[in-house]
Amino acid sequence: MTFFKELDSSAGDAEVWALNPAAASAWGSFWNAMMSGPSELTDTDKTAVVAYLYGLHGCNSAFEASRTSAQLDTGLYPFLAEPDVELDHLGLDDKWLSLLRYLRKLCLDPHRLVQRDADAVLAAGWSEMTFTEAVDISAMVKYHTMVLFGHGAS
Amino acid sequence: MPFLKSLPDHANAMHVWPLHERGFEAWGPLIKAVMRREQDSEFAHGDKELIGAYASAMNGCTHCYSAHSATAVVLGVGSELFEDVEIDPWKAPVDERWKPMLAFIRKLCREPAQLTQSDADRVFDAGWSERALTDAIQIAGAFSFMNVMMIGHGADQQDLRAIGPLQAILRDNDDYGYATEHRDMKKLYAKAIERFGADAAEESFKSALGVMAGGNAEINKKNSSVLLPYLLKLLKWYTVFKLSVRRAVGIS
């Protein structure tokens, strides 16, 4: 149920962004820029990370939409089965575990991040470029969830 | 202290953004679309800075809060709120109309899933339109993007209050974002002197230079083909700017 009379009660992402057409257009380009280009993460990996972050934020509509649209396999991405579950029990390899731990803390408890957390990501074999990419994607998801929650369209 | 070795100790957004060149290029049009809609917006430039600064405070990002609260004050927003920005928004020293708006933004930043129709209705009951609230949500969301990016890189603690006057002049020109090459720095400097006096103008420009050009050495160390075009643009701008400032203050 949205908070705005201007929006239909079932309005979703597209309708909310349409309230500011210039921003909607720029958002599409921004999203593509953040999710494309050379990376250690595949496109599917990035979509899985985005879905995980939506789940952590409790933005259920976006979580389900991204999980189903990309047909993400919870066997390959077990953290998508239940984003609230502690990561340590999912049998993830060290590389994924370090990155997701960092993103989880950035999402849920950002001011407790310390150098050791970042070092763990890099020590696990991720490059600084991927570290930045993942942080920036997290920031983008935060922005997106705020737009959805703020309009009552989450 | 920034978490990445490639970032300097004093890293700010001008250092962090070039780490993601594609995103940086796409960010400019987005932040402009969010912040510029002056002709039919209920918010003046200062109000938008206030919303961005308040969201940044709620997210705990000193970097963005310091820069944009200072800009808001130069643009005419009262400084009382910023003396204790954590105060309960319903008791904040702001116009009554702003209290439900600040309460909404606070909740949007800290407990977004707890927002209800009542929170929005309090904003509307105070006289704000749906358009105003959607603008405020977009601004708070965009600033939160920056906050998370800076916090995630451990680069959120820089105090950028000194650039407030320069940013205010940019806002007067409906100018947003970090790209500098399109700006006529001579005109900006002249305008800063006219508006704030020579000393304040010089101080703000010096600070802005620190912010905008401070990353050159570190970026250069990367020797990255991705960052090189950005570096060249920045160096070109810096050289032109330095000459224009020296001429403006009568140094040959």
List the topology elements.
The complex is a heterodimer of chains A (154) and B (252).
Chain A: H1 13-17, H2 21-35, H3 43-57, H4 60-69, H5 94-108, H6 115-123, H7 128-150
Helix pairs in contact in A: 3-4, 3-5, 3-7, 5-6, 5-7
Chain B: H1 13-16, H2 21-35, H3 45-59, H4 62-74, H5 80-83, H6 98-110, H7 117-125, H8 130-152, H9 164-172, H10 185-196, H11 198-213, H12 216-222, H13 228-248
Question: Could you please describe the fold and organization of this structure?
Answer:
The complex is a heterodimer of chains A (154) and B (252). Chain A is an all-alpha fold and 154 residues long. Chain A contains 7 helices and no strands. Helices cover 60% and strands 0% of the residues of chain A. The mean pLDDT of chain A is 93. Chain B is mainly alpha-helical. Chain B contains 13 helices and no strands. At the A-B interface, helix 2, helix 6 and helix 7 of A face helix 2, helix 6, helix 7 and helix 8 of B.
Oligomeric form: heterodimer
Low-confidence stretches of chain A: none
Would you list the SSEs of chain B in sequence order as H and E?
A: HHHHHHHHHHHHH
Evaluate the radius of gyration of chain B.
19 Å
* SSE sequence of chain A, one letter per element: HHHHHHH
Strand content of chain B: under 5%
Distance N to C terminus of chain B? 38 Å
Q: How far is it from the N-terminal to the C-terminal residue of chain A, by CA?
A: 9 Å
Number of helices of chain A: 7
Number of helices of chain B: 13
Morphology of chain B: globular
* Overall strand count of chain A: 0
Helical coverage of chain A, percent range: 55-70%
How many E strands of chain B? 0
**Main sheet of chain A?**
none
Query: Kindly state the mean pLDDT of chain A as a whole number?
Result: 93
Biggest interface, which chains?
A-B, 51 and 51 residues
Mean pLDDT of chain B: 84
The biggest sheet of chain B, with number of strands, parallel, antiparallel or mixed sense and barrel status, is: none
